[in-house]
Amino acid sequence: AGGPASVTASGETVCPFCSVGCRVTLHLAGDQVVVWAEGADGPANHGRLCVKGRFGFPYLRHPDRLTTPLVRRADAPKDAGLSLRGADVLALFRPAGWDEALDMAARGFARARQAHGPQALAVLGSAKGSNEDAYLLQRLAREGFSTPHVDHCTRLCASVPPLAEATGFSAVTAPIEEIAAADVVLMVGSNPDSNHPVAASFMKNAFRRGVKLILVDPGMQALSRFATHHLRTAPGTDVALLSAMTRLVIAEGRHDQAFVADRLEGFEALKARVAPYTLDVAERLTGVPAAEIAAAARLFAGAGAAMTFWGMGASQHAFGADNIRAVIALALACGQVGRPGAGLHPLRGQNNVQGSCDAGLLPAYLPGYRPLAAPGHTVVEMFDAARMGEVRALYVVGGNPAMANPDLAATRAGLARLEHLVVQDIFPTETAAFADVILPAAALAERAGTVTNTDRLVQRIAPAVPPPGEARADWRIIRDLGVRLGLPWAELTVERLFDEMAREVPALAGFDWPLMERAGHARYPLRPAPEGDSLFADGFARGPRAAVVPLDATGADEAPDPAFPFILMTGRLREHWHTGSMTRRSPVLEALSPEPRAHMHPDDMARLGIAARGTVEVRTRRGTVRLAAWPDAALRPGVVWMAMSFFEAAANELTVNRLDPTTRVPEFKCCAAAVSLA
Ligand code: SF4
Question: Which of these three, 489, 511, 533, is where a domain ends?
Fold first, then answer.
């Protein structure tokens, strides 16, 4: 890592690795290599960084960085990407100038639109970029391509739609730091110590000061030791557990009767719907002792102020929206919103996950969540449509669906069938292997703009390091492509794009570039200081009352059976981020977490005669991968857990392409698997 002695320059940016939005100072050596990163005094981190923020930046100057536009060699077969990984991808391409590559990219889209109509075009963005990238990309899709098919990877962790349904607001009602004013925290399906580590560090401070934690999560995790109640549900049974808690709270008259009377819709229907979930029923379905469920429900209902968090463990199911509706219903029945220390908070994934949704990079919404009557395809649906020959041309900006989507064989088949694929990224990803044109992008630390974290905090960024070679900011590449498609965009700048987006997004009222330059950051909605950051003291964005949506528990789509007796769960590690294209190029992070592992309970390993680190084959109905078995007593027996970040044994070869009917989020947390010695 080097140290202060070798530092010749420093620059500040926002960490790109999760939605906490930590500010980080990058210290550079003379050749602009990052030799040292330290936490800056940002509003979200106050000097703290996690292991990714501290050691994750070597990717900026990694030799695999794309530094020049590339076009596919005439003799490279279209499906060659099916077997290629990483830098091997480059053998399929030849370098090109920007004009040649952009002309080819634009011509391919124009040709596909002319031959097959605008519905044959699709755009897949990313929550890794800036607000300005996301805003302009959705404009390109809608104005340049005239297609409704525009989405981004937030779809893979969509934890917000049920919140919007309940409150009319598509962001957290209270930021993480409100935990300091809470008595109790309810956390469902989230492992912030791995996925939002700096946020978890503030949570741990609060728990040490006496804030009580109710944790709903099948496995043990770093926050388990702080939990007053850790309800270790059987995978896929959250609705039953939360419904039983809600039923008990109502039956014992512990709900917030004034809140329910004055500020809630749907309570009577909710009461009827949770009625069957007695403690006995819940214990049978979830495996959690009835007494523990009751004690947790009473603790939550008795809190003066409670923060409610949920994460991917709740949302990434084919019934994820119902899981979240059940969380929200419990919180609202107890009136736990709209006061200091009380609020609803989906812990979201990527650095600009909030901003890219606000910007309208979504198939069902224009900027500011203005709904569309005829939504386009979501992430997974785009590839289904490509496989069927309906989508013919695709522009991928910063996404890596060939690693991130469920059922990778199906995604790759869709990629291979495309007539025209343009991939814009900082590395030759698994997706780029299928491209006709690859456009080299600048990384977040190399550019100007704004990003919006999970707490509705909009932060300005400026380049901390220059981009390598000919790499350019995404918004600039999108603009130049738009100009080639006839759009009058030649004069667009980052400043103009932010101002335009702020005008289009009601929640950003009062925001403009001068404010960002002056203040560096601001939380939306802009409010006078005494009002605090917990929204909805009176009324909600949807009207005077919030809504609870009654629901029934639905079981896992693919339950274990004799042929596939395990439940496969996928997730993330503290050391690696998503598909690993950046963090796996960090020597420190790679040393800490160097290989794909199949985490299993030691009892299961003993039963199957599997030694620690022995090679196993994990099979599902979609595919097979080989990797090291890793004893993990934190798991429930019968579960095998894999991280999504390792291309050598990609977890998504195994996952199931089944979507939640409301959010279209795929099922990443529960499918039937077999494990055997390789
Ligand atoms: Fe980066 Fe998130 Fe870690 Fe902060 S908590 S340093 S934003 S990965």
Answer: 511
Distance between Cα 159 and ligand 1 center (Å): 19
Using CA atoms, how far residue 134 sits from 4, 97, 116, 291, 488, in Å, is: 36, 25, 26, 48, 18
Closest CA to 26 of 445, 594, 396: 445
pLDDT at 1 (0 to 100): 44
Is 495 a member of any domain? yes
Q: In this predicted complex, what is the ipTM? A: 1.00
Q: Are residues 363 and 339 in the same domain?
A: no
Looking at 234-311, which runs of residues are DSSP E strands?
Answer: 264-265, 306-310
Would you state the pLDDT for residue 82? Answer: 64
- Residue-range definition of the domain harbouring residue 595: 566-659+666-677
Q: State pLDDT tens for residues 330-358.
A: 999 999 999 999 999 999 878 998 999 99
Q: Are residues 449 and 356 in the same domain?
A: yes
Residue 92 lies in a domain: yes
Pocket lined around ligand 1, Cβ cut-off 6 Å: 15, 17-18, 20-22, 45, 49-50, 52-53, 196-198
Same domain flag for 119 and 173: no
Choose which residue among 12, 13, 17, 577 to substitute to test ligand 1 binding: the one with the highest number of ligand atoms within 8 A of its C-beta: 17
For residues 264 and 366, state if they share a domain: no
**What pLDDT does 3 receive?**
54
The predicted model gives 248-260 an average pLDDT of 98
Asked if residue 45 is part of any domain, the answer here is: no
Same domain, 625 and 639: yes
The CATH number given to whatever domain includes residue 146 is: 3.40.50.740
What does DSSP say about strands 23-28 and 34-39: parallel, antiparallel, or unpaired? Answer: antiparallel
Predicted model pTM: 0.93
Same domain, 501 and 636: no
The pLDDT tens digits for 603-629 are 999 999 999 999 999 999 999 999 999
Distance 199 CA to ligand 1 centre (A): 8
Query: Considering just the CA atoms, what is the radius of gyration of the chain in Å?
Result: 24
Mean pLDDT of 538-552: 87
Q: Which two tokens stand for residue 565?
A: 């007796």
**Following CA atoms 207, 208, 212, 214 in sequence, which dihedral angle do they give, to the nearest 10 degrees?**
50
Give the residue from 217, 165, 228, 171 showing the smallest Cα distance to 195. 217
Q: Do 486 and 589 fall into the same domain?
A: no
Cβ atoms of residues 607 and 637 within 8 Å: no
Quickly count helices (H) and strands (E) in the chain: 22, 30
CATH code for position 240: 3.40.228.10
Q: Hey, how many other C-beta atoms are within 10 angstroms of the C-beta on 281?
A: 16
Q: Is residue 536 part of a domain?
A: no
Test site for ligand 1: of 13, 19, 20, 459, most ligand atoms within 8 A of the Cβ: 20
**pLDDT given for residue 417 in this prediction:** 95
Q: What is the pLDDT of residues 409-418, one digit of tens each?
A: 899 999 999 9
Return the best residue to mutate from 13, 14, 19, 22 for the ligand 1 pocket (most ligand atoms within 8 A of CB): 22
At 315 the pLDDT is 67
**What CATH number did the domain enclosing 648 receive?**
2.40.40.20
Q: Are residues 390 and 443 both part of a single domain?
A: yes
Instruction: With a cut of 70, say whether residue 257 has pLDDT above it.
Output: yes
Domain count, the chain: 3
Q: ω before 525 within 30° of 0 (cis)?
A: yes
